[in-house]
């Protein structure tokens, strides 16, 4: 089932060999890797929006080490339980990055006997290209798109996941089916605290709050904790995939670069929201 819709008129898209096309003949080429560019020029607030090629590569290298596998496994178990009663659920990953969590989640759903339809998008062309390139089985529909103008039909998703990306509450409420789930991963209070202790003279804990989103009811907060030790170049890959990369003083970055080994706490919270019935 094609989950993406035309970003120009909102009509259904039909997938051809190398193109997506709607009844009004708006067409969108599929890249060689299999993804579509569904981000209209008016929504591009930079020449090349989103994460750079270098940031995407650093995140992929780090994730390939299994450093965040505990969070991916937690997400998989959670979403499989939320979709337990649905044999063919529809899944949307908003801000999917290079697709690490998406791919593993679809694999977990299939391993549980389900036949999911999955669409994932990110505003970074480099991230989506990397995700689609790895998806040899074409298990996921990939696109360059914005969470604030999601090219997916109303009430199309049984579950929408957002891993560390901005929450576009109005669009999420439009896309998720009544009774469907929105799973939002946010950093816990001491997530990467060991990294902050190196970067900053006065490290700080992350703020924790239960945010109310119109159209959704917060059902549960599920924490996932672990410890991580990284060495060598993986330390800088971890740094490059965090927001601290952009706001750390040079002195902090130099201290980090001098380390051979870094040990830090990991802490995600999964916030489970339920879409209200009309």
From TrEMBL:
Highest taxon listed in the record's lineage: Bacteria
GO molecular function, one term: metal ion binding
Cross-referenced InterPro entries: Methyltransf_25 (IPR041698), RlmA_N (IPR048647), rRNA_m1G-MeTrfase_A_prd (IPR016718), SAM-dependent_MTases_sf (IPR029063)
Record's keyword terms, sorted: Metal-binding, Methyltransferase, S-adenosyl-L-methionine, Transferase, Zinc
Organism whose genome encodes this protein: Ruthenibacterium lactatiformans
Domain Methyltransferase: 92-180
23S rRNA (guanine(745)-N(1))-methyltransferase N-terminal domain: residues covered: 4-47
One biological process term in Gene Ontology: methylation
Binding site for S-adenosyl-L-methionine: 68, 98-99, 191
Protein name, UniProt field: 50S rRNA methyltransferase
Keyword Amino-acid biosynthesis: no
UniProt: Zn(2+) binding residues: 6, 9, 22, 26
UniProt cross-references to SUPFAM superfamilies, sorted A to Z: S-adenosyl-L-methionine-dependent methyltransferases
Annotated Pfam families: Methyltransf_25 (PF13649), Zn_ribbon_RlmA (PF21302)
């Amino acid at each position: 089932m094609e989950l993406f819709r035309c970003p120009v008129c909102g009509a259904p898209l039909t997938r051809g060999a190398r193109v997506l096309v709607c009844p009004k003949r708006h067409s969108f080429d599929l890249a060689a890797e299999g993804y579509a560019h569904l981000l209209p020029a008016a929504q591009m607030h930079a020449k090349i929006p989103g994460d750079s090629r270098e940031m995407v590569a650093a995140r992929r290298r780090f994730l390939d080490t299994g450093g965040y596998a505990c969070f991916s496994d937690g997400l998989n178990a959670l979403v499989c339980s939320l979709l337990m009663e649905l044999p063919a659920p529809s899944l949307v990953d908003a801000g999917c990055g290079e697709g690490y969590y998406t791919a593993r989640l679809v694999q977990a759903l299939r391993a549980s006997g389900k036949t999911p339809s999955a669409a994932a998008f990110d505003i970074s062309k480099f991230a989506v290209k990397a995700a689609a390139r790895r998806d040899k089985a074409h298990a996921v529909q990939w696109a360059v798109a914005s969470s604030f103008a999601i090219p997916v039909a109303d009430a199309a998703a049984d579950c929408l996941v957002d891993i560390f990306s901005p929450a576009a509450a109005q669009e999420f409420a439009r896309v998720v089916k009544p009774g469907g789930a929105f799973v939002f991963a946010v950093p816990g209070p001491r997530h990467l605290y060991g990294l902050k202790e190196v970067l900053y003279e006065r490290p700080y804990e992350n703020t924790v709050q239960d945010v109310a989103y119109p159209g959704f009811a917060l059902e549960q907060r599920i924490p996932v904790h672990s410890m991580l030790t990284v060495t060598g170049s993986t330390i800088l890959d971890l740094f490059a995939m965090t927001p601290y990369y952009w706001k750390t003083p040079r002195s902090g970055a130099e201290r980090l670069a001098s380390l051979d080994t870094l040990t830090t706490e990991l802490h995600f919270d999964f916030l489970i929201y339920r879409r209200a019935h009309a």
